[in-house]
User: Fold these one by one.
Assistant:
Number 1:
Amino acid sequence: MSLLPILIAPDRRLKAISEPVAAVEADVARLMDNMLETMLAAPGLGLSAVQVGIARRIVVARAPDTPTQSDPDAAPRTLMMANPEIVWASDETALMEEGCLSLPDQYADLERPAEVTVRYLDRGGEQVETKATGVLARCLQHELDHLDGVLLVDRLSPVRRNIILRKLAKAKKFKQSDAA
Ligand SMILES: [Zn+2]
């Protein structure tokens, strides 16, 4: 297994619409393993393939179905998914703070459906449906957005989005000149 470099916004590659996976073959399973290792090392709760520069519909996540990660009942579930799609979303919504490995140190409160059912191909290529609530439901909706080139900042007001992206662009420039 190996750690993969995570793209940081602003980066045009994060705006790509990811392509479906034809089948979960050995290369896809290996990518899932490397993505999971990369996500856990970051650390993060979810990672999409497009965030490591591979525009395929692959997502990994590890999060609990509880309202917070520190909930006493929190038992994180690890999901490795190809071609995930939301087949049901609750009318009930939840306001929750989100972060993103491609938007380091940036957090925003966002309202989304509280529960979702996601259909996907698992690491063994089997079609599975799972209902997620709490942090996991939030995480999956965030990761599935990535597959359509949608970032957390795209769901904020244009003003807020520009402030965050400008901050990140500046940090990137600083890092580059630092390394040079
Ligand atoms: Zn993200």
Number 2:
Amino acid sequence: MSKNKIYEKNPAALQSLLLTGRGFLYNFLRQGGIFRKMLSELESMEHFDAGKIREWQNKKLSLLVRHSYKNVPYYNRIFKKLGIIPADIKGMEDLKKLPFLTKEDVRRNPEDFLARNINRFFVRKNFTSGTSGKPLKLYRDLYSVNFENAIVWRQRKWGGLDFSDRIVVLREEQIVPFGVKKPPFWRYSMPEKRLFLSAYHLSEENVSYYVKAIKDFKPKAIEAEPSLLYILARFIKKQGISSGTFSIKSIFTSSEMLLDTHKQIIEEVFGARIYDFYGNAERAAAIGTCEKGNYHVLPEYGITEFLPLSAEPGKVEIVGTALHNYAMPLLRYRTGDMVELLDSDCACNRKFRTIGKIKGRISDFLICKDGRIAVDACYLTLKGVDNILQSQIIQEDLDTISIKFIPGENFSKKDKDKIMNNVKAYMGPEVEVFLEQDSEIANDKTTKYRPFISKVKL
Ligand SMILES: [Zn+2]
């Protein structure tokens, strides 16, 4: 029985206990002694001038390049092919001696990027569907997990949050089984002091339960995917509930693009400022908003280059060389995410590069007949399906979903049934699902490939 199935079959109290167990594990993995040390180092680096930041980055880069050459098969080959040695890359300006790395390069053979001197027991494996809709296998070491958490926590401190504060979480994760029709639509994790709200039970009818749960929990902050929080905020606004209802100090959003319209409504409804965070599954770069509301590239995370896009004047692609993941170093990784640069200093006084807008990834909404709205249709539909190379999901109307897909070698009827069951479990048994097997998914070269398209208006 899968982890998800075991979770689903247990009563609410036991689910909270399971989350609590996971919370202890997460705290242990992400917030050990090394994490506290990193966090205090990061907090002191905020006051560095540009030269000192650069010096720090170059030192880290030299170490990473040496490690990549010595221990990572892909880079050992590339360096030899180019006739260069690690000493030829003394600083970030020498990085251009190396070629860009694409998603496709990594997808083709992820193990080629896995460092040979790393203890596999401590390496975490992750899959992401990525924006291309093709699965990508990624590895991270524990140092990288701790470092990322320190980067995240530094921003939370900008937002006035401390470790002992209570947080409400709203993410696409399945917290409450889909079949549950009555509250509670949330579960509590004691070690993390977090109340996890179900994203899949949000509806106009249920919103008053959510409001009461948040009020009773008295959180200092909300952590959420912005489009989900927007859905909740919209329902709350419609009910005429005032922002004074909640005593929330700050909101932390991440994992997808934050739209201006969403930001405005969320901040108005909860009466708190949003701190947005941009990262990616490949851990190539990190960008976060400060107390003044400006986006900054976080320089300790990695070296970030900006590749001009001729088709999109004024916009650049983020190319990242993260300095902390020795299990799977990716040098000059093209993220496929777009930003607009801003050439001005920020009133927060940090000497971090300022970004105007993040224009990349945006999720679409899957809408059910009874008013429930799911943000990540791909996650819902393809959960537990291993043998698909690429797919495109189209919501034709409230009752119809079409899915085009390229099957993998081991694709079978089991995968087909799994997709059908996934969709019907969430949307209801009456929904019609059309599966269309194909060898290629049409891709308009001028626009980014979209794994999910909705023809239903929200
Ligand atoms: Zn700032």
Number 3:
Amino acid sequence: MNDCFMNTYHRLPVVLTEGRGAQLTDQAGKTYLDFTSGIAVNCLGHNHPALVKAVSSQAAKLIHTSNYFLSDTSFVFADRLVAACKALGMQRVFMSNSGAEANEGAIKIARKYSQTRYGNGRHRIVTLKGSFHGRTLTTLSATGQDRFHPDSFAPYTEGFIFVERNDLVAMEKALDGTVAAVLMEPIQGESGIWPLDTSYVQAVARLCRERDVLLMFDEVQSGVGRTGTFLASELFQVEADVITLAKGLAGGVPVGAVLAGSRTAEVLGVGDHGSTFGGNPLAAAAGLAVLDTVDNPEMLAEIRRKGDLVMETVRSWQHPQVGEIRGRGLMIGIDIASDAWPVLEAALQKSLLLLSAGQKTLRLLPPYIISDAEIKEGLGILKSVLDNLPPQ
Ligand SMILES: Cc1ncc(COP(=O)(O)O)c(C=O)c1O
């Protein structure tokens, strides 16, 4: 069944056919509890009535217009999204189709901002070790992990500097007059769910202001309510210059967004950037349904409460396999003593879908609509898998 695909993914042996809420069904009719949300995408779960209705009624009206024209749905979505990101000072948005593409847009904004003001030679971008920013050549180059820089894809885009997360001295040293921007995830997702310290981010924000360096948050995984605030970076109480979003933004319909604040809103002009599909009416209708459902205090409080329930339950086991538990809201990393991949396989056998992040960290990204009973059931499965692992 897999032969027609290029062999790029380490897939688990299951073929999914249907979903409802936090449950998925495979070809054989077996159901699974979904603690993955398609890697932080299906934030409203599967088959959410508001999302299905929005997508199907938009599909019956207008699926796509090129960006030579405005569509009413795309305009309303963009307006609502900018309003949802006001806490970080966002004023304008460019719509793309994916997280990597959103980060490409952010990098272009940073380069043009700096080039226009200071001329050539100040184009470098500081990112953090352990970061993940995407799979295009430039976003791979921005990613602060050696394993994403094999020789097979060289040469990479030049101009990225990597510093340790939460190391202010290293950051201060890196901002040496050749740097246009700092790009960082508020919580590093792919490398193991590593939140940044608030005091560190606030100090970096001050340094960036002093040195006219842009502060850009990659919220592709952490944004759109995942951590219990609409943006994870709201917690830092700083103003950002650029924020990127994707994944959960349209609940499974591909869309990405680059948001810009007061210093950056006017940087890109006509002809500087573009995307054929970016933010088309179908994606915008889906995005509006997500915003309507997620961007309200009750839903965000529920995400925080459910996240606490997960973390408190796992802590209460005092399990010899479980080490540090990190994260916020429903973006949770659990360090375990064993390799994560066999745990994913064993959990799948027992009808629970899990993710890993790094070699020995389980990553839990359940949909926001998951019930308490489903959380307890899924964690019960996880505990039984951990109970059966050989002692380390
Ligand atoms: C923080 C972060 N940035 C960017 C990306 C790339 O997003 P996409 O796969 O939509 O290109 C990801 C994907 O995992 C991510 O987690």
Number 4:
Amino acid sequence: MTDAILVIGGGIAGINCAMNAAKYGVQVYLVDDTASIGGMMARLDKTFPTNDCSICIEAPQMYEVANQAKIKILTQTEVRRVQKADGVFKVRLVKKAKFIDEEKCTGCGACVEACPVSLPDELDGKVGGKRKLISMAFPQAVPNVVSLDSRCRSGQMRGAGACVGGCAVDCSQCRECPIAYCVKACEKEGKKAVMLWQANQNIDLDVKSIVVATGIKNAPPAGDLLGYDRFANVITNTEFERLMNAGGPTAGHIIRPSDRQPARRIAWVQCAGRGLGQGRGTPYCSKVCCMIATKQTIIAKEHDPSVATTVFYNDLKAYGKGFWDFYRNAVGHGVRFVRARPYAVSEDPETHNLGVRCEDLDTGSLRSHDVDLLVLSTGLIPSERNARLAKTLKLALDPLGFFKEKDPLLSPLETGVDGIYLCGGATGPIDIAESVSQATAAAMKALCFQT
Ligand SMILES: Cc1cc2nc3c(=O)[nH]c(=O)nc-3n(C[C@H](O)[C@H](O)[C@H](O)COP(=O)(O)OP(=O)(O)OC[C@H]3O[C@@H](n4cnc5c(N)ncnc54)[C@H](O)[C@@H]3O)c2cc1C
């Protein structure tokens, strides 16, 4: 028998679940399939409704889990197989190679500096962030080690300039690469942490219960939603979050992508795409977007009070504690909230300014609004990895792709499989405070579970 618990997903929900369970002395495995724990919160600037710096409040928790003797963090790790036998879950994990010796890497960054090849950072999207072929997920990453793009092996990035070239050995026959810039830079620091020959590793665990905390992601704008595909200055709210983040690609300068000049007139479109059909918007309310936009307007105003900020909304969701005051705070900063539904966007080809055509929802009249930057609040959707994980865990998903609770009213956070629980964005769109409460409850359920 074992008391151990597996937590799948290392966002703020998974972190809190692991910390709560470990305080009761049980062994906890915290697994994330990306290079660092932290989840979405690690990429945010400030957090509603307090406007605390997101990473400043999450990083101490990330370090606490990393230093808690009873928690083993496994990043870039997937849950491959789960079988119930003799009252325990027998779990096969696959730890994907980072091509780095995590014990030897000190996160000094010499290899990153030396790497000459940059790729677009997926999350930064249009606002232009880049990452190197060898990179740290973000400066506060836990574990604080780099990982290497798997394409760097066997000379695949040689053409892009990842090595000095001139090697006598045929790349396809060689698993090491002593001439890669990152390898050389690491050696110069007196370490040999870059391991191009590193293989994936299978890890087998016995656990008594499992908590799924696989989170959410921002819905991508589909079908050229309000000109997103055509116009550089139409961005998503996640891209705006990266723009205003001091640790983001513009060091916190709110510029517009077309000419990198400060955005002076910014508008947000709430429920972007909803009601348009053809899969162009989430068919449900994501609950947090109104407060995300409210936060972003306040921060934009704090950066520069002369910036004009307008929120086009349908129904304002200010459902949580302190949320209405937060909205009033934005109004006090001079933010305009307009009940209107934007339906078309045009661009001036010379200035790249945008014309937003909307229907006023109070009067029914049509009007036009000129802006420099348009931010689409597209809503939250489940992790695309949920389907595979649900199959592995024999769990059901709801029609939206979130994990299905046994009974949302009387058995929330429980699933159709005894001993497997849910928390945070795995259950549906959610904010941080609710994710943390659910994580605490799921930890207790996982601790108390008896076969
Ligand atoms: C633009 C934006 C701004 C926001 N601003 C705020 C705010 O100001 N205040 C607020 O309260 N909320 C805000 N939110 C919501 C907030 O991000 C979520 O409430 C929070 O991230 C949910 O935490 P989580 O741990 O459940 O999920 P996530 O943060 O999504 O973390 C999930 C983790 O699970 C991992 N994972 C996923 N699938 C698997 C798998 N199959 N195997 C292993 N690991 C997996 C992921 O890599 C990730 O690390 C915002 C969201 C967005 C998009």
